Structures are given as C-alpha cells and as structure tokens.
Amino acid sequence: MLREVHEEHGAIFGERGGREVVAEYGRPERSHGAVRKVVGVIEQPYDVLVVTGDDRVEYVDNAVSNTVSDVDGTGTYALLLTPQGHIRTGMYVYNAGERLLVFLPPGKGDPIAGDWREKTFIQDVDIDVATDEFAVFGVHGPKATEKIASVFAEGTPEESLSFVRGPMGDVGVTVIRTDAPTGEEGYEVVAVTSDAVDVFDTLVNRGLNAAPFGYRAWETLTLEAGTPLFESELDGHLPNDLGLRNAVDFEKGCFVGQEVVSRVENRGQPGNRLVGLVAEEVPEGGAAVFEGDEAVGEITRAVESPSRSVPIAFALVDYGIGDRVGDDAALSVRIDGQEREATAVELPFLEGSERSGRLPRYP
Which CATH number is associated with domain 273-356? Predict the structure, then answer.
C-alpha cells in the first residue's frame, strides 16, 4: 500500500540488498536541496531483528564491536566483524525494555539471525526476524526538530541514538534521534507496518511540511556529510581504516578481531585511510587513485555534489596521504583510461546543522 503512496509522489524505484526502495522522486537534486535547507523524509529499508530473553543484552554485546546499552530508551551503533576483524555488517542496537531492536542494512537480517541462533547454546535468548512488522522513516534537515515537534507531542529526544515513545496523530510511534548521517539534524520514526501510510502522510503533509526524498539524494547527502555507508565503504574493510573509532570498544577484548587490535597496539595507525577527494570529473567506484605514477588507493563512492557543484568522492588510500590533505596531497584519478587531477580534502565536504556521528576519526 505504501508503494502506491510513493507512486503518487512520482517515485522511481530501485533496489538495495534485495529490497525495493525509492531511488528518487523525479528530481533528486531538488530533494537534496530541500533536506539541506528545510527538512525531508525518506523511507529506510532496514532489516529488523527482535532479540528477547534474559540474556539478550549480554549475548548481543558479546557478538558486536561496541558496548550494547542496558538502559531502556538508548541505542548503540556497532559492527559485526569477521574473525580477521573485517566488517561483516554495521547495525544500530536499541534497548526497548524487554527486547532489543537491531536495525541492519537490507538483506542482512536473515543470515545474521541464522548465525546468531546457532550460537545461543544454553543462553536465554530468542532471535526473530521482524522486518515486515515495522516501517522506519528518516526525517533529516536543519528544521527536522521543528518538524517532529509539530506532529509529536512527547518532545524530541536530546541525545544521539536515544528515543521516546508516544502518539503521532492517531497512531503510536517511536522517535529516535539519529547520529546525523546527512550532516543535519535527524530523527527516525518507527511505526508498525499497518500504520505506515498514516505516519508517512503525517511526516510529509502535517505540521511543518517535509519533502520526500530517495536514495540518490541519500547518497549525495551522506557523502557531503562524510558518512561512510555499508555497501560502498564498510563491507569487508577494517574499522580503523575507515576511522570508525566510535563503533569499536577496544576495551572489550580480542573478539573484535586480532587484526584490528594489532593495528592499534603495534602500529599505532591503520594501513589505509578514508579521505575526501575533489576531482575534475565524477569517477566510478573502484577507480584507481594515483600519486604521481604510483597507485595509492581507489574510489569507493563519488557524486556530483549538489551543494558544491563539483565532483566529490570517498577514496581509501595509503595512510600517509591522509596526513597531507589539501594542496600537499595532489592526486589523480583514472577516468575512462585517463588520469584526471584530484585533491584530498578534510571531511566533511559540507558543514550542516549537525556533524555526522560516523565522520571518520583517526588517532
């Protein structure tokens, strides 16, 4: 039913992790501008796990890279790593009292739930895939707090990844304050699937109006904000190479992967570093990055920045280049067989109303 509502707004659909998503509503650059100037709404295609049982917090805490909160109404951004310390997936883990809600990238719910069920042993833990039971809408922009306040009587949560429950119109929802992945004030509104149409209508049309936007705008917004995404930056890489220090609690021990630990303790820095590039043209993901004649990395994601009107990109490059961002880091990118000039720059590309909580940080 919600698909029909998106179609009424002129939606063009795409796919993420086997899930159908709104790619755009006809003019993604206009939607991008609406989020940067006022506020926009996007349907987020999370896979959702519900974890219950007396040992739920301990079990998930032992499985992931960060400390899972045992306080109702709070959440954590964490990573699930391979034994070698590479990222298998990112996730948000929210403590909702007698259950944990785990928000995963699309396509990750079933395999992660299957793996976790095999390892519960004698612990009191139940893991259910509840993706079809929930609808999640992101509300982002410098007026996002004003937007939520105009339709939600309980007040907006103040701390990142904290949440409150209450009525939005005639239905009950949970409102989460995000870690600002677009570089703007951000919230996620969680509702049961049967209320999705009403909640989307409320967010777009009631109180302060908000513009619907899709995943093409999401990619430009998050890149400008310096936020790595799972599909393009995180999958298969090391957390330290991506500067994801807020997502890893190194005090938890070697379960996070010996390779990750050794890079911190023995070398003091990772082998690669995620940097921003400003280029002459928009390169493709995987394009080689050069310093002189030497290949020093590759592009992970690139767009034409609607805010800056120049091509921008993430590149995973040799660590030392990240220490020389600016004019001293003159690079080139191979585009259609030719090297085009590019410059490594400080992230984020754009300062919005908030800084992304996932902005890469290095020692």
Answer: 2.40.30.110
